Amino acid sequence: MKLDAIDLRILEVIQENGRITKLALAEKAGLSPTPCWLRLRKLEKAGIVSGYHARVAVRRLAPVASVLMEVTLANHRQADFERFERAVAATPDIVACWSVGGGVDYILKIMTADIDAYQRLVDSLLDRELGIDRYFTYIVTKTVKEETVLPLATLLPVSG
């Protein structure tokens, strides 16, 4: 789907405020409400807007441990990757997982109540024999930057 400058503006605005009113969105996009709403519906139907979410400041509620984990699998058959990825998808404390090129197979972002809970999670993954050969743990001591708003203007081509 080709996006024009107005589509891009709509996306930028709803990234910042998913609860914006239709009228305010239209105003910021430079359209009247009905055409703006139709464009937004088109973006939703195309799967470009995949949902509206709240950012929860969990650390204001309770202390948590954020951990990054590098994982290398022992074997690299498709079935091995699929088995590991199914386990990751079914584990709520693993909040993100990226398959990466280079010296490791995956990087995981894990959030647990504390380091002991993280270690119990790792032990359970290892006990399930998911093919993990090696893993390295990186404890997040401070979040310097974690964007939820993507820089769409620099990432996406815009049709004129």
TrEMBL record:
Pfam families given for it?
A: AsnC_trans_reg, HTH_24
UniProtKB keywords: DNA-binding, Transcription, Transcription regulation
Specify the superkingdom. Answer: Bacteria
Q: Does the keyword Transcription regulation apply?
A: yes
Q: Which PROSITE patterns match?
A: HTH_ASNC_2
* Protein name, entry field: Lrp/AsnC family transcriptional regulator
Secretion signal: which residues?
none
**Domain (HTH asnC-type): residue spans on this chain:** 3-64
